[in-house]
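All the exercises in this workshop are built on plain-text protein records. Sequence and backbone structure share a record, each on its own labelled line. The structure tokens are whole numbers drawn from a learned vocabulary of backbone shapes. The record below serves as our worked example for the rest of this section.
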Amino acid sequence: MTSDVHSRPPILITLVVAKADNGVIGRDGKLPWHISADLKFFKRMTVGKPVIMGRKTFESIGKPLPRRTNIVVTRDAGWRAEGVTVVQDLPSAFALAYEDAHRSGADEIAVIGGAEIYRQTVAKAGRIYLTEVHDVFEGDARLDLDLTAGWRETARERHAAETADGPAFSFVTLDRVPG
């Protein structure tokens, strides 16, 4: 008889990120654009899943994300925030996220930023949910990762700008190429 542990589907690590054409993902702790559809896409990709983020990303959001287990990584051992689990390193974050995903039945762990957390976790990821913001923005946080080598695009939805002065955007799913 097979035990429950062996019959569970694998839990996929995903990155959920929005970036401008020039690699910018943030400015002064905020997104440099407002795209309502992207906020809805982000919610759809993360609700019901454990989310891992850095302290600055959490502070830019300002509160725990509802209906998600919020795991915040910070080197500051004294930092606390209500409604989140605080850890000092990524291995601890992933251990908690896997435990939570197994308990809740989630099939993905969502890594939601910032830039340094993405850099440190991209090698573990099996999928990237990427919002391409089709414009150039000023910013102080950049996603400087090669998302071509080792990845294949498996889905793309193109969208026109939501407002006259807003950017067009695309929702792209990238899956890791096996091997």
About this structure: The chain has one domain: 4-176. The longest strand covers residues 12-20. The CA atoms of residues 86 and 123 lie 22 Å apart. Strands lie at 12-20, 24-26, 50-54, 69-73, 85-87, 108-111, 127-134, 141-142, 151-159, 168-176.
